[in-house]
Amino acid sequence: MKMHFCIPVSQQRSDALGGRYVLYSVHLDGFLFCRVRYSQLHGWNEQLRRVFGNCLPPFPPKYYLAMTTAMADERRDQLEQYLQNVTMDPNVLRSDVFVEFLKLAQLNTFDIATKKAYLDIFLPNEQSIRIEIITSDTAERVLEAIQDIEKGWAKPTQAQRQKLEAFQKEDSQTKFLELAREVRHYGYLQLDPCTCDYPESGSGAVLSVGNNEISCCITLPDSQTQDIVFQMSRVKCWQVTFLGTLLDTDGPQRTLNQNLELRFQYSEDSCWQWFVIYTKQAFLLSSCLKKMISEKMVKLAAENTEMQKDYSSFLSRKSKIKIAKDDCVFGNIKEEDL
């Protein structure tokens, strides 16, 4: 899986001895992932080189004199380029050195304390197992259905909601999950509120992505709302554009945020049109679109393989069938040939 790292901003900090150092804010797919020092990244690069040798991209050199502002900006750009290049190698991405460093960096950045815990896993046969975990362990879908519904991301009908509540009271996990999968937007990824140029410029939007579609809840400038769905089968292409940085004054600290847009070409009424979404999560949205396209291609390839197997089996049973040489893909079987 392609990971998009960037370092949009860096900050100078003071250490315990009164010295100064630079802290780099590393973002992954539009989200703040961790903050690290140059020395940490340099040590990580040395560990990677012991495993992968000289196949790694060059690492930004050390400066032995005080850095000017221009030198600091140049180093930030070089570190960003290094992260983007090193993640292009799938072997590096899967390595323990790569994963453990980023995991620890994220835990330290957000001051996440780890402790032992127990997790109950309910199986399809209505049995359950309990496993011991560390709270820093990752799990993509822990209690996903309940959380999505409670947050309003998944949108059950009134009848579905009543049944789901009844299954919860009965402690019937299997029936709950079976019905939850039928709920609109179950399992979709919901992005932060953003703006778009459709159907009017400056319209607010909340995007839910999944099931080969982009579902948009649009708020027009006159406060009216409108639900619009873009099917991936009608998307021709898309691109992410970096528009610069903006000063974000919300909250206790002023920070620099990326100003990004994702535009995609869409077929509507037999005409190709460009639609623009302005969101700081443009890279995350792009990654979601890539995954949906990839999953669709894998599914089509599997279906095509099964069709070929079925057709070969059919031919072996019906050896007398004649197929015209210039007919379409699997041939055009004519009634008089049967």
Structure commentary:
The protein has 338 residues and is α+β, with helices and mostly antiparallel strands. The protein has 8 helices and 13 strands. The protein has helices at 38-52, 69-86, 90-93, 96-109, 144-150, 158-169, 173-180, 282-317, and strands at 5-14, 20-28, 31-37, 116-122, 128-134, 189-190, 194-196, 203-210, 213-219, 225-231, 235-248, 255-268, 271-278. The strands form 3 sheets. Strands 6, 7, 8, 9, 10, 11, 12 and 13 form an 8-stranded antiparallel beta sheet that branches. α6 (158-169) runs antiparallel to α7 (173-180). The two termini are 48 Å apart.
Oligomer: single chain
Structural class: alpha+beta
Poorly predicted runs are: 138-142, 318-338
Element-by-element helix/strand order: EEEHHHHEEHHHEEEEEEEEH
Summarize the structure.
This protein is α+β, with helices and mostly antiparallel strands and 338 residues long. It is 34% helix and 30% strand.
Task: Lay out the secondary structure.
Elements lengths: L4 E10 L5 E9 L2 E7 H15 L16 H18 L3 H4 L2 H14 L6 E7 L5 E7 L9 H7 L7 H12 L3 H8 L8 E2 L3 E3 L6 E8 L2 E7 L5 E7 L3 E14 L6 E14 L2 E8 L3 H36 L21
Antiparallel strand pairs: 1-2, 2-3, 4-5, 6-8, 7-8, 7-13, 8-9, 9-10, 11-12, 12-13
Protein traits:
8 helices; eight-stranded antiparallel beta sheet; globular; 338 residues; three-stranded antiparallel beta sheet; alpha+beta
